TrEMBL record:
Name this protein carries in UniProt: Phosphoenolpyruvate synthase
Family: Belongs to the PEP-utilizing enzyme family.
Free-text function comment from the UniProt entry: Catalyzes the phosphorylation of pyruvate to phosphoenolpyruvate.
Domain of life: Bacteria
Sequence ranges assigned to domain PEP-utilising enzyme C-terminal in this UniProt record: 4-308
């Protein structure tokens, strides 16, 4: 797609919205291709591509060989490229969210990763970062982000913790982050992903401890409904449904809890751009931002603008 074409699309499809539209990004090099799109920031920067394609070696394998600097510098370069390209808009960098079966695929992974029967609900996310078996790997991730913020001066790089399950692990991981110079406060925003129903049930307690909650609609749907997101048969039967009333209820609770404590609430995942009714639900409930894949940024922006307009008209003149 030519630059001219992109500009035309942006002009035509980029009205102003109150709800921020963020973009998901996994491959740092792609920021050049997408940077003209009408997004307000990167709401989910996945780091797994950096691990698989830019480093290729398991972090703990690197630690064992005293080669952690490789991960720090490549991860910092990748994040900095994105943060630089869209400065001063934020880049919400998600710490690695591989499952054990995926981590095993990296060089040296089979030596350091256990085999789990249910990796999807196994040693992933924060439980990994605070464990003696991965803490040093997590510290490398922290150092990479610190480098971006301090050496590159890109303080628009924020952090996001995936697969949070409970409050005590959140305290522990924040303490590790602080010891690596990533103390919450000032320009460093710390978001968590709401993917596990325990976060919904204690939403207010979590909201007090963080700057933002980002709803991971894929995992939240899976775990709220008890439906394996990768199960072909359950998907064909319509069980995996982000618009199931139970999921919508969970989302509502999260938005309200975040707002009660003056925190931001976002959603990452494709659902808002797949289903206009879902986007409308989110806007009506007051979600602050939606983060979607590059190919749906412009469309989602337009969709949200039309929903917001309708809402304003309704407020002014009542439902037509
Ligand atoms: C999610 O769970 O909705 C999410 C965005 O994370 P991932 O799809 O990477 O698990
Ligand atoms: Mg997830």
């Amino acid at each position: 797609i030519s630059e001219q074409k992109v500009k035309e699309i942006v002009e035509q499809w980029a009205p102003i919205t109150g709800t921020k539209i963020y973009m998901n990004l996994g491959e740092p090099g792609l920021i050049d291709k997408y940077k003209e799109l009408p997004f307000d920031g990167i709401g989910l920067m996945r780091t797994e591509f950096i691990f698989t394609d830019m480093v290729g070696i398991h972090p703990m394998y690197l630690v064992k060989q005293n080669k952690g600097d490789i991960l720090i510098s490549r991860m910092a370069e990748g994040i900095a490229a994105v943060a630089q390209a869209i400065y001063p808009r934020p880049v919400v960098v998600r710490f690695s969210d591989f499952r054990t079966n995926e981590f095993r695929g990296l060089e040296g992974g089979d030596e350091v990763e256990p085999i789990e029967n249910n990796p999807m609900i196994g040693w992933r996310g924060v439980s990994r970062y605070i464990s003696p078996e991965y803490e040093e790997g997590f510290r490398l991730e922290c150092r990479a982000i610190r480098k971006v913020r301090e050496e590159y001066g890109l303080t628009n790089a924020w952090v996001m913790l995936p697969f949070v399950r409970n409050l005590w692990e959140l305290d522990k991981v924040k303490a590790i982050m602080a010891s690596e110079g990533l103390e919450q406060g000032g320009s460093l925003k710390v978001w968590i992903m709401a993917e596990v129903p325990s976060v919904v049930m204690l939403a207010e307690e979590f909201a007090k401890k963080v700057d933002g909650i980002s709803i991971g609609s894929n995992d939240l749907t899976q775990l709220t409904l008890g439906v394996d997101r990768d199960s072909g048969i359950l998907n064909r039967m319509g069980y995996f449904d982000e618009q199931d009333p139970a999921v919508l209820k969970a989302i509502e609770i999260l938005i309200d809890a975040a707002h009660k404590y003056g925190k931001t609430c976002s959603i990452c995942g494709q659902a808002p751009s797949l289903y206009p009714g879902f986007a409308e639900f989110l806007v009506r409930k007051g979600i602050d931002s939606m983060s979607v894949n590059p190919d749906t940024v412009a469309y989602t922006k337009r969709l949200v603008a039309s929903v917001e307009q309708r809402l304003l008209l309704e407020r002014a003149f009542g439902k037509q």
